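Work Package 3 (structural annotation) set out to generate three-dimensional models for the target panel prioritized at the project kickoff. During this period the team completed the workflow that converts sequence records into discrete structure tokens, so that structures can be stored uniformly alongside our sequence database. As a representative example, we reproduce one entry of 481 residues exactly as it appears in the project archive.
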Amino acid sequence: MLRHSLPVPNIKYDVASNLPSYMTGGAHSIKPYEEPSCGACTNFQRSSCSSAVLSIPYKSTTRILHSDAQHRQYRIMEQLPSCALNCLARAAIAADCGLTDISCACGSKVYFNSATSCVTVACSVREALYTQNQTSALCHVEPYTDRRFVPVIIAFFILTLIVVLLRIASRVVSQAKFWYDDYFNFAAFVATSVYTLNDISLSNDGFGVDLWAVPQGNIDYILINFLVGSVLYLTSRALVRISIILFYLRIFGTTSAKAIIMWTLAVVVSLFFGALFPIIFQCSPVSYTWLRWDGTHQGQCINFRIFIWAITSIAIAVDFWIVIVAYRLVAPLHLPLKKKIMVSAMFATGLLTIAISIARLPYIDQFTVTKNPTIDWVPITLWSALENFVGVICACLPSLPALLKSRLRSKTLNTSGDRSILGSQSAKVGGHEIGSLKYAPIYEMETVHGQTSHIYQGGGNGPVGSPHRTHNFGDPGSKTP
């Protein structure tokens, strides 16, 4: 991204031809007795086919079938390209294995190394992968599979969906208006969900399985959809950041705060487009991004490894800055220490997303320079999905206390009938409820809606008949009874 349910070939043989079933039908199947032309791998493609090629010796011209095993061996060997047959014959000589001694070939490290190095140089990527697939079948070598990411991202999808629904419920129960920060957060959840569904879908086409065991007709499809997934990942991360910044704008309405917030928003938008276009147009032509793996196409690509390291480092720095902005805006407020700690802790949940971004770093090289992309891309896919889900959850957390307070308030009113006390016990930032003690106004700040709200300090009540509306923290528009 448990494994055994992966619906990709696990070296099962077609009854008619004794070949792996996915090689015997469909538009991308290899027809009997067809020998693809041999060619040398380029440096890029050679890295894709340089993984171990388990091979067996070629049964030269003998057509007397003494057993089913010999018949099966003969039919498989007859399908191998000539470039691979020559390599297997040389490997048999180097390992001192008989031409029909399968057990010797499968168990010999000398044979293994000789065949691998020869096939890597002499054959194309498609021929090398096909050779490894066929010889692995004879040696009963199962492909490595990794589907750990599927149950994990499904679990986080469900958790995130619950939190988003609670955010919606909070707005409805508190009678607060939905604003742009809500809409961007919902859009981020949709983008992350599509990204997740795309990953799960790819697992049914061979993602999470050794490349040599994936039907070659599926490889282009996996690479195209992985590019789509990269765009969805970038989009979701940008939407989450924008949602958080708009939330700041919603509750911190002073002129100086607006300036910092708007500059931060500009940086986030610039980062998004600065990463999006190089991702999409990393190769020229664009199709070379998913076609270059087989060595039969021409094109040029940027240094993707350097680009990913650069854009990831900048993104982490921007995420740190977004958290710092929250602390800078909260620090000057005249609130009791307990209240400041509570508000700061709420904003600090953004550090979880940063921690996951840092956890992804060790997998960047594995992602950008890979010999086996359908396996090597699984870890970064998992961490990217978690990063997006946790980001959406963190952006929702400031809205959830309003739901709890609304429930508690309703219960209290039902038992005491005293609405005036609850109505006066609120500390506010930009019209948003921070605490539950009495505070006196110490200064005014203009909200984004053009209204005037107050910061309250302990020791007194707000001005009688004050025209400003009182809101739950993160919920403009909610009325206190």
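Residues 149-401 form a domain with the Rhopdopsin 7-helix transmembrane proteins fold (CATH 1.20.1070).
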